[in-house]
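Quick one:
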Amino acid sequence: MRNVKILVLAGALALAPLAAYAGDYVLVASHWGSKQAEAVAAAGGTVQFAHGKAGIGIVTSSAPDFLDRALASNAFHYGAADEAVQWQNPIAAEQIELTDGAAGITEAVVNPANDTFYPIQWAHAAVESPAAWAAGCTGDGVRVAILDGGIYSAHPDLDANIDVACSRSFITGVTNPFTDTGTFWHGTHVAGIVAAEDNNTGVVGIAPDATLIGVKVLHSGSGPFGSIIAGILYAADPAAFGAPAGCARADIINMSLGAVFPKNGLGFLVAALNQAVNFAASNGVLVVSAAGNDGIDFGQAFNFTTVPADSGSGLAVSATGPLAWAYGATNYTRPASYSNYGEGLVFVAGPGGDGAYPGNENCTLPVVGGTVTVPCWVFDLYLSTSRGTSVNGGYSWAAGTSMATPAASAVAALILGNNPGLSLGALKARLHQSSVDEGPIGHDEFYGHGFINARRACEQ
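Output:
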């Protein structure tokens, strides 16, 4: 009935390769105003993006001594030449092609079991999404910014939930926020985990009535620090970037991206990223980032840091995944074989999938209107939306903390949708309190405060 193909893993590299982002600089002050703008111009630069209150500017200059001259003005605390980073692994992605098309839109999550691939979305059982939906908890009214590559805005499982007018690209030379390379589109997969629609086709997101804002900060998984910093500031305060009237800030920023650096490397760029995350928090925005897929205990890796997981006052998510779900296993909170962890790093854990099952035999499982046959281990991965090769988009399996992170963002959206106006501190507390304690009793290095739970989040 459908062409079924396979995707294996999505996430960050162990030590990110760097490349100078030609002619771009990140400059930081306590406040960005006329003094900073004049100093940039006098040093031979042009401001691309700047935020007054956050005190951060992204500047372009061809002058070889630009940075020295700019810093000599005493208008800035510090600055650095921008660097491009591979924040996500490049993957040759494949997908299930959607051939049955959209079959109508429902007004609420009435019967997600009618969505074609819902029966093989084990993550909903893991976090008890159906109980949350039954209580009317769907993320309605909550805005989630997906800082990633492109979201395929025409996907029938996403189109009604994307705020097209308020989406934006911060990649130089790529003005369209709804584009990327290949047929996977990491940002599209992430978006579907948060808010794929309940529309009798495809898959269902954990917060299927939340609004998605596409903020393109990567292309083919790569992007400079400056693009990510600008994306954070835009999501937290779109008016400062001249966004159309009516573009409210995001409530939650999801960053399913990350890279590992020596603590003594790129200090100024990492510090600027910290400042951007902290500005978002000061504006009431929850920043959620992937812990990373390097299998590193950052409680012991004293000479390294993973960003943006370890950036500012944001929170990081580790990943779990079942082993042999196709055979009936329900060990959803089993630590994923690749996930980073560490005391002081992880806030909560979420379902990210895993490909550790050792066999390669096929399994056949039912979906609405037919069956799907793939190697059994594939069913342990996370199934969500992807770009595909047709106008209707596709669906892909992937695994990574990149997948666990939007699951946590979605549960936060459920909490906020049920409690409009909740403060950032209260939102964090409720995400913590609603999580299920796993591993050693209390806060631990892998699960942090626990494994996210949608039902408990909506009962608070």
